[in-house]
Amino acid sequence: MSTSAPAADGPLTDDGLVQLLTPAGERVSHPEYDTWAEDLDADRLRAMYRDMVLTRRFDSEATSLQRQGELGLWAQSLGQEAAAVGSGHALRPQDHVFPSYREHGVAHVRGLEMTDLLRLFRGVDHGGWDPAEHGFHLFTLVIGSHTLHATGYAMGVQRDGLVGTGDPTRDTAVVTYFGDGATAQGDVSEALVFASVNQAPVVLFCQNNQFAISEPTTRQARVPLAARAPGFGIPSVRVDGNDVVASYAVTRQALERARSGGGPTFIEAFTYRMGAHTTSDDPTRYRTSEQEEHWRRRDPIERLRVHLERTGELPEVFQAQLAAESDAFGEHIRMTVRAMGHPSPHTMFDHVYATPNAVVDAERAWFTQYEQSFVDHDGRQTAGGHR
């Protein structure tokens, strides 16, 4: 495990980045991480390529749906597919993920029905999926808060005796994803404290896409973000976040360390947000087209595509099938979102607590009475109705 040291050119340096696949698609060797990627044969690389392609299609469809008024907001993951998909492939079924709101690739790898992610952004559900079903918890919109949730969950896993047993079907790790901007939040600092002193089985995965909304990383730190973790007693590693192979390898090692009782790891995946922060953002106000072009040439999907083609492992029939699957996937997304109905307002009370709660019951009763006040004696909604 490597530790990031302060770099002369600040937090945007590429010094010390773990890279196994260059932007030109060339597989390169690394003395520490080669062994953690040796199980990636051609079939698994094609699976990763497929997952990245479908994740991007999902992202583009969601963006279009928001522009058409079908979603209230959308947070793109364009350009960050390798960090999500690579790390997602390193997970085991019993592991748990605490995402922020840009981990669409991880959700896809974990097997979620992807349109369920859009229920939140369409405003018909508080979340849209069961966190326990795939070990993928609900998106967190409060920046950085979920790193504490993840650390607490990891401490619970530890106390349940699901760490360091030597049984690969039982030993469990937790991973939490957050952006570079979240590292400036106090919650992340507190999570690092608790993770360290408790040796919690948690991987803190920072997707450094270089912008916290409109503020660049250079306004958030003077050194690489991963350099913060050793101050808490947590080993850290910086990885080329546009390299799906390296993202897989460093996460696989960190997860295994957590499951075996070795404690937490901080991963900084250095990547770039090709899209806007959300669909309400205009990135042309704070970055240049030259910068975008520089990172477009480092596209994570193109990088793996070139590698597979060079090694003769991307047959035309596979590409044709994937194109057809992508088109069908896009149609499924559009049709499913537009068919989402309007839930009863009363459902907002359904999952506040796992068990009955007197305060929530009282609030539900008040709301029912409030709604009925807009109905006249003939059972019709009056002009003063709020719906």
Could you characterize what this model shows?
- With 387 residues, the protein is α/β, with parallel strands linked by helices.
- The chain has a five-stranded parallel beta sheet with strand order 1-2-3-7-6, sandwiched between helices. A two-stranded antiparallel ribbon has the order 4-5.
- Strand 2 (174-179), helix 7 (186-197) and strand 3 (202-208) form a beta-alpha-beta unit.
- It has twelve helices and seven strands.
- The protein starts with 41 loop residues before the first helix and ends in a 15-residue tail after the last helix.
> Total helix count?
12
Low-pLDDT segments: 2-7, 383-387
Overall 3D shape: globular
Secondary structure class reads alpha/beta
Could you give the count of β-strands?
7
> What share of residues is helical?
25-40%
Q: Mean of residue pLDDT?
A: 94
Give the percentage of residues in beta strands.
5-15%
What are the salient characteristics of this protein?
single chain, 387 residues, alpha/beta, 5-stranded parallel sheet, 12 helices, 7 strands, disordered N terminus
